[in-house]
Amino acid sequence: MNNKQKLLTATAITGTIVSASAFTVFDYAICRRKKQPDVRKKEKRKPYLDYVLKEQEWLKEHQEQELKEIRSKDGLTLRAAYIPRENAKGTIICMHGYHSTNDIEFVPEVRFLWNLGYSILLPWQRSHGKSEGRYITYGVKERHDLKRWILYTNRHLAAKNKDIFLCGISMCYNLNGSRSGPSRQCKRNYC
Known about the structure:
This protein is an alpha/beta fold. 40% of the residues lie in helices and 17% in strands. It is built from six helices and six strands, in the order ααβββααβαβαβ. It has helices at residues 3-29, 49-62, 102-105, 107-115, 142-156, 171-177; strands spanning 68-71, 77-83, 90-95, 119-123, 163-168, 186-190. A six-stranded mixed beta sheet has the order 1-2-4-3-5-6, with helices on both faces. The longest helix has 27 residues, at 3-29. It is elongated, with a radius of gyration of 21 Å. The model is unreliable at 178-191 (pLDDT under 50).
């Protein structure tokens, strides 16, 4: 084998390794997870596991049976759990973060906020939970989804002329403050 063949072989091997690595990183960071996160398997949550499981049960008991749905700008069906409150002061939209779900990240807050007199909307972001989608876009498309949830809340969830609050974790911190995100009537709360 001469030097030219050795160089070509080394380049081919390097290219294969780089391509495989890039695909692995893309699949991990951008693509939808096949399995949903389980709080029982997270070490950092073990001290709070009983509380979290109890609050998840409360959440399941109080959310409406029918999921709320909207269509995203690019045609995906996005879904949300809704916990209505009679004579609500307003609605709080809680947007979960990267590779998570609303019944994990907002479990400690939901009952507290509901007891304060607010209805709660818990959307699953695109490519998460019960919403459609294959790719996470880190706010590029999610900000438009949030705007649609706000409009839906105004039109369909008896929130007209009432405050809408936004609560976001992780990548949603950025969504709530984006220029095309919340409308003027929304009040922002960064959890």
